[in-house]
């Protein structure tokens, strides 16, 4: 399960 | 990337471009709160600490550089530029914005997703951004003469986070494990702070009258 992180957002 | 986030980023980009345009062309920052601009510079500085260590995409890096560059140059213009600084209304822009930073830092130390320096700084920037507009809103209430560009700037700045809320809803339904309560609540609080401004902005647009905030 890829834990999607929020750090790909500005 | 989804359409809501792109719309949010573009709206955010336009808000800083409108402000830079205003300051650069008419060499005036009347009605703009330096405190809010300083808070935004700190927000970007603490949020983009990993700009060179954590490459996500060219778009992401370019946008980070634009936001960092524009926020610091706006602060520079308002503090140092010999013409612009004369139009800064420091007697009215008196919000104790440094008092906003301490609670945000303490809250970030308590409520965060991971207790690491970078994550705490990132969370701090999130909380700080939620309240960064307060000095500007207070200044608008005081000066009451809101020129179009300032009104558009605040409107776009508020609208961008509303688009981000749609982006988080979209990502929640399309990506597994996309649950970020801290970001969601902070983003919601931020957008709600603009609620009354949006109301008066819409009223002035609908009745085609100059934007007036009640005292």
From TrEMBL, chain B:
Principal location class: endoplasmic reticulum
Membrane topology according to the record: Multi-pass membrane protein
One of the GO BP terms on file: protein retention in ER lumen
Keywords from the UniProt entry: Endoplasmic reticulum, ER-Golgi transport, Membrane, Protein transport, Receptor, Transmembrane, Transmembrane helix, Transport
Recorded superkingdom: Eukaryota
One cellular component (GO) term of this entry: endoplasmic reticulum membrane
UniProt family annotation: Belongs to the ERD2 family.
The keyword Transmembrane helix is assigned to this record: yes
Record localization: Endoplasmic reticulum membrane
Source species of the chain: Herrania umbratica
Protein name: ER lumen protein-retaining receptor
Regions crossing the membrane: 55-77, 98-115, 121-140, 152-170, 182-202
Any GO molecular function: ER retention sequence binding
């Amino acid at each position: 399960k890829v834990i999607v992180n929020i750090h790909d957002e500005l | 990337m989804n359409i809501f986030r792109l719309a949010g980023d573009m709206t955010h980009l336009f808000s800083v471009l409108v402000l830079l345009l205003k300051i650069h062309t008419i060499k005036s920052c009347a009605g703009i709160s330096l405190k809010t601009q300083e808070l935004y510079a700190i927000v970007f500085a603490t949020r983009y600490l990993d700009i060179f260590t954590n490459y996500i995409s060219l778009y992401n890096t370019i946008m980070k550089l634009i936001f960092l560059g524009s926020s610091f140059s706006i602060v520079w213009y308002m503090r140092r530029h010999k013409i612009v600084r004369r139009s800064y209304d420091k007697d009215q822009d008196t919000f104790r914005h440094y008092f906003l930073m301490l609670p945000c830092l303490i809250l970030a130390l308590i409520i965060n997703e991971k207790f690491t320096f970078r994550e705490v700084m990132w969370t701090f920037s999130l909380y700080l951004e939620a309240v960064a507009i307060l000095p500007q809103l207070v200044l608008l209430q005081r000066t009451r003469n809101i020129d179009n560009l300032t009104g558009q700037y605040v409107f776009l700045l508020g609208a961008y986070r509303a688009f981000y809320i749609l982006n988080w809803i979209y990502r929640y339904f399309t990506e597994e494990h996309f649950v970020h309560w801290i970001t969601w609540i902070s983003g919601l609080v931020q957008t709600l702070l603009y609620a009354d401004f949006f109301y008066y902005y819409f009223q002035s647009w609908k009745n085609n009258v100059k934007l007036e905030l009640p005292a």
